[in-house]
User: Fold this.
Amino acid sequence: MSLSNVYIISTSSFFPNEPIQNEEMETYLGLIDGKSSKSRRIVLRNNGIKNRYYALSKESKPTHTNAQMTALAIQKLFKEHPEEIKSIDLLSSGTSSPDQLMPSHAVMVHGELPETNPIEVVSPSGVCCAGMHALKYAYLSIKSGEKQKAVATGSERLSASLTADKFQDEAEKLNQLEENPYISFEKDFLRWMLSDGAGAFLLSNQPNQHGISLRIEWMDGYSFANEKEACMYMGSAKLPDGSLKSFKDFTSEELIDQSILSIKQDVKLLSENIIELGGLGMIASLKRHHLSTLEIDYFLPHMSSAFFKDKIYNKLIEDNTPIDYSKWFVNLSQVGNVGAASIYLMVDELFHSGKLKKGEKLLLMVPESSRFSYMYALLTVV
Assistant:
């Protein structure tokens, strides 16, 4: 059986509401125990983010669900020819912040698109790599000939987990115990790192007749969970031995008192591993596909923070896989860290920039700190 080429023929992004600058963040997220965060300025100084988007009002009330944002990004793919949305036969939607545990995120997105037909849907879970896993499922489905047109998405609605009310009971309990009323850095750190939004790709076994398309050459993934304990987690608590205790094993009172449903990150574990392991994955993929970084025209690395930019650059040099800064394309400072959506948002901006020329190669890199997973992909402009 011959395999089909797979092309990204359209891209789109959706951001909720207006961009929010650094000094406005606590207006939307609120003050924990009525006090401004001690870590906010330190984190923002290091992460380089100037704007982000929240699906929240200034009263911390939701304005969009994750599924709604994702559906709006998908509809933008077909804004010139809305009737063509009926041509898709697969929806593959990745996120780390679904609106509910059940039903799956993808079927909820499909439910926001009554103009589509009954189609296959799939919901890869995870964190930042979830969007790339969604893309790979769509890519392989078309490449095998199983599907002809597919939509892949990455999206996040993380702001709802970062509002002050989620931490208020814990702060009050710490006050009662005469301990530091400020929420631990592993929780507060991420309040200043994350953003909301959605991105979508339309994939086909045929390129565009007019304009550019992006042919997907390959996609690789690597997990180091066999070697490393969890670094970023939600709905659980980390025990002294490094294992996670599920939210299902806490009482309802403990869930609230300990903010078990909040997102947490082991910053020390992150700094020790995220760059080093990402370099190993990069070397493995380049070797597997006989590719030199000298052949790359654009490098799109997903970064949670600008803090890692020079570290990634230096690691690439150390591993004899250098990529000059002139080839980097990132938009972290203007849209924020949107987790599983971030790589979609970078590709979308570059796709519509007018910069791409046929024959150019784009290398994508998406690290995921949750338990150190990585995805890489190579796209060619055709």
